[in-house]
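re: ur msg from earlier - yeah i can do the adenosine-5'-triphosphate complex, just paste it... oh wait u already did. ok heres what im feeding in:
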Amino acid sequence: MLTDAVLAGLDPEQRTAVTAPAGPVCILAGAGTGKTRAITHRIAYRTLAGEVNPRHILAVTFTARAAAEMRSRLTELGARGVQARTFHAAALRQVRYFAPRLLEGRAMPELLESKARVVGLAAARVGVRADRTGARDLASEIEWAKSSLVEPGEYPVAATKALREPPFEPAKVAEVFAAYEELKRRQGVIDFEDMLRAAVWGIEDHPDVAEQIRAQYRHFVVDEYQDVNPLQQRLLEAWLGGRDDLTVVGDASQTIYSFTGATSSYLIDFPRQRREAVVVRLVRDYRSTPQVVGLANAVIRQARGNEARLRLELVGQRPPGAEPELKIFPDETGEAAAVAKKCRELIAAGTPASEIAVLFRINAQSETYEKALAEAEVPYVVRGAERFFERTEIRQAMIALRAAVRSIPGETPLVQAVVEGLAATGWQREKPPPGGAAREQWEALAALVTLAEEYAKSPTLEPIGQAGAVQRDLTLSGFNDELARRAEQQHAPTVAGVTLASLHSAKGLEWDAVFLVGLADGTLPTTYAKTPEQLEEERRLLYVGVTRARQYLWLSYGQMRSSGGRARRPCRFLPQLERNSTTERAGGDRSRKPDRRRPQVSSCRVCGATLLAGADRKLGRCPTCPSDLDEDLYERLKTWRATMAEELSVPAYVVFTDA
Ligand code: ATP
Ligand code: MG
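and the outut:
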């Protein structure tokens, strides 16, 4: 049976979810327990069993990359034609499709590129002086309001109720909000939330549209349901129209978008709202080593949010790996250099660069790592597709490729046409420049060629933004359309390299090796997090970060931001995990008498890692640099470190000495 293959490789609880009959299904489970796998298999199972037509399924994922992964996984399982999209992409498609009817011939409004800019203009109109940061903060406040279905007039009350910390007086924010809406209307542009709203009102106000949409979408699946916001929920309900063939999966401990209006309450309340729902809980973690799982449990154990009462400890299923430790560097540059060096080592030892990620709290941290990796000649990609299509060389390349349609003979095979078209921008396939920013641009353009290759030959590649079996146009102009669709949906091609990403954009993904960097108070949690709720969200972010690692997890921070600054403390959510790991270490080795003399602190001259001298006070080589150490010494140091960790209240640190 085709369905047997779909059920193989699932545990009993996952099977319950996969084979549940039509109707509401809810999987509540921690990271790495196979939620995404379960819903993907549920779709394949129902399709292959002939229970549902793949064309009638809409799977909603959180990122375009997750959607693409789900589609390719479904194809592997033998289920084609399922629509897997983000809320945004699904709404865009719907609005586009119905625009001619709903707009009665008027042009579809353009999507606003920079919300902050228009918000800045709106602020000026109503006499609110906002600099760039102010405009950005106002923009996110407006985003929160719109995602929470709050109108300008309702803002002050709603913001107070939701314990928002607006950048200006609530009444002022409301004025800016109203002015912003007015400005957009006059300019004939819409923003991201308007698009979702248009999709909602399109259905709610037009019975014929509703009928057509509901005939198309009959079975719904939503991944990462803990981060759905009221606007998205309303769209989901509009699609459902009272029907209940809906599978949702999520982990309340991974709610990391509540600052934009997301709330885990829809997930948590689901079983109560739909009493007939099949509810499944998963606890086996198939992603990470037991060490990483232990750390993840320790990070989230102290959580006080909504999720605390629902949380189940994860149970690691994979073979053991290295103990994660926190490495402290004198500054961020030293930290980044050490990360780059370790990346090189991992790659040299056989880990593909694409299986490594460096994750940080805020995008501004990216640059230091981009530099360090470029210097170490480690290929990398910055995640966040908008970045890819916003890159100057990509924009220029897209213009050049459109121009090339006229100059390159129609019969030239696609990949060659793309290479020739790119040559107009000075790019040469055979001549990759050596490391650095030169090199990075070359890689980005090379990614376009790789995409052309996939587009030309892969029978499984589904054109982005179109459902199922569409006849693909394999000419250069067909490829240009594909690029335009991708740019619009922020669907970047995969470039082989170490991933640099914010913790927010790492959701749902996994890598063999993960570097969590900048784990200092003030960065994680960010200084902007003040209320208990905001701090809880920061804790969940750390949990999301930790649980991205399959095999190897590195935790670090640089003590000084700049020379002369105050030494920073480790992320406050880590001591709990440290105590957890140190008791375990010490517990295993009670017979040894710990060395209680004070250590000597210095830093490695090569990579900058903090070094603590052992009992004999001789400083040794640091473990991020190649170092031979005999087992006995290592054991001794472990015990010693456990005690010292408590004394210094540093979670863990690099400790090595000569014997
Ligand atoms: P997250 O909360 O981070 O989104 P998740 O619960 O969605 O995680 P998945 O991404 O579905 O977890 O699965 C995590 C990893 O474990 C994947 O590599 C997946 O292939 C693997 N996996 C899931 N279930 C099983 C299983 N029953 N047997 C073996 N591997 C599994
Ligand atoms: Mg998942």
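cool cool. The radius of gyration is 26 Å. ping me if u need the other ligands too
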